[in-house]
Design brief:
368 residues, alpha+beta, Aminopeptidase, 2 domains, 9-stranded mixed beta sheet
């Protein structure tokens, strides 16, 4: 091979960066393309706050005139976080090594000592982890890849650090009446009240989300607190896809203590819309959103403040979601994503729901 590395810094390079992935998976019936604008927002200093304390680079690798791989690298200098993501490659260890060397050497030159991969320069609920089991029904902003990628990463020297499990739950798989009696009793005796999101009262829910999130995650590694300004922006970005009755908050004596937020399975729409959310793409999206009968929702984030994490309050929110599903003739299941092996309480909850494991991702790391 005559390999040539090119840094992505022109409009043509950016188009190739996106198109290469679609070309690589062209014969894979399960593949659903990422949305170009979603990924570009990650590399846009104006849209991604990570650039305040960090930097990102991405590259294409050519064999003569043909792209054979791509990769991105990023770091945050404040917390010494470094990541590699948006990796794609033909089934060639030499191509993968060339891409990994490029990313690792650049990060080392910035003083980084350790790198995670494949991860996102932003929130952990997006583009995080390497798919190693499942390889079906990829979800919106979930990493999907060929099975051979596992060997490419591990042969290079990456070591598994987190096992991320995605499960799927259906109301009919539990003793629904028994579970409902338990949650109703818990809510009544404990003085808990569950309320679903309302767009008309978004300011209140932004404030409550921020308070819950910052308490629930402050003990986690690499925790960065949310501000109300940032959460307001996130809810604004979600506005076109929000379904109010699948975003739930839990209160104890009017104090916000937990949330369970879901979105519709957007890839059922994007599989028909395509990869570009230009004007035509947005019009098609709105058409399918209003006419397509979505049969699955995806739980994207859970949170319980520490004082309530051993009280079983999550079950109240789960039951609220199941009640919504039982009333909707089209919804069949909820996807519960992603739960790390460092969170045994959530795994125990999912077992109580008879949730079925559907996909597994690994987060890797390597010392530089």
């Amino acid at each position: 091979m005559q390999l040539k590395l090119v840094e992505v810094n022109t409009a043509a390079h950016i188009r190739s960066f996106h198109q290469y992935t679609r070309d690589l998976y062209a014969d894979d019936a399960e593949f659903v393309s990422h949305i170009d604008q979603d990924v570009e927002a990650i590399f846009d200093r104006r849209q991604n706050s990570e650039f305040e304390d960090g930097e990102a680079r991405r590259w294409l690798l050519y064999n003569e005139a043909e792209v054979v791989g791509k990769v991105a690298a990023f770091y945050n200098i404040v917390n010494s976080q470094a990541g590699i993501g948006f990796f794609d490659s033909i089934d060639s260890q030499s191509v993968a090594n060339h891409l990994f060397d490029t990313a690792c050497n650049w990060l080392a030159s910035k003083g980084m000592k350790r790198v995670e991969a494949p991860v996102n320069f932003g929130e952990r609920d997006k583009y995080w982890g390497l798919m190693v089991e499942g390889f079906i029904n990829p979800s919106y902003q979930e990493n999907y890849n060929f099975a051979y990628y596992k060997d490419l990463f591990e042969s290079y020297g990456f070591s598994k650090t987190i096992v991320q499990t995605t499960s799927e739950a259906r109301p009919e798989d539990i003793n629904y009446e028994k579970y409902k009696r338990f949650t109703d009793k818990l809510a009544e005796k404990g003085g808990y009240k569950a309320v679903h999101f309302k767009k008309a009262d978004v300011g209140r829910f932004v404030k409550d989300f921020t308070a819950i999130y910052n308490q629930a995650w402050e003990q986690h590694e690499h925790f960065v607190p949310f501000t109300e300004e940032r959460v307001t922006k996130l809810f604004a970005e979600m506005k076109p896809i929000i379904r109010e009755d699948i975003l739930w908050f839990l209160y104890h004596q009017n104090k916000p203590i937990a949330f369970y937020l879901s979105i519709i399975d957007l890839n059922q729409i994007f599989k028909r819309v395509g990869a570009n959310m230009n004007l035509w793409g947005k019009l098609k999206f709105l058409w399918y959103k209003n006419t397509l009968k979505i049969d699955k929702v995806r739980g994207i984030i859970f949170g319980v403040v520490p004082d309530y994490q051993d009280k079983g309050v999550y079950s109240i929110l789960i039951m609220k979601m199941f009640e919504v599903m039982k009333k909707d003739p089209y919804l069949k299941s909820t996807e519960l994503a992603w739960i790390g092996d460092f969170n045994p309480k959530m795994h125990a909850l999912f077992r109580s729901l008879n949730a079925k494991k559907t996909k597994v991702h690994y987060t890797y790391e390597k010392l530089l």
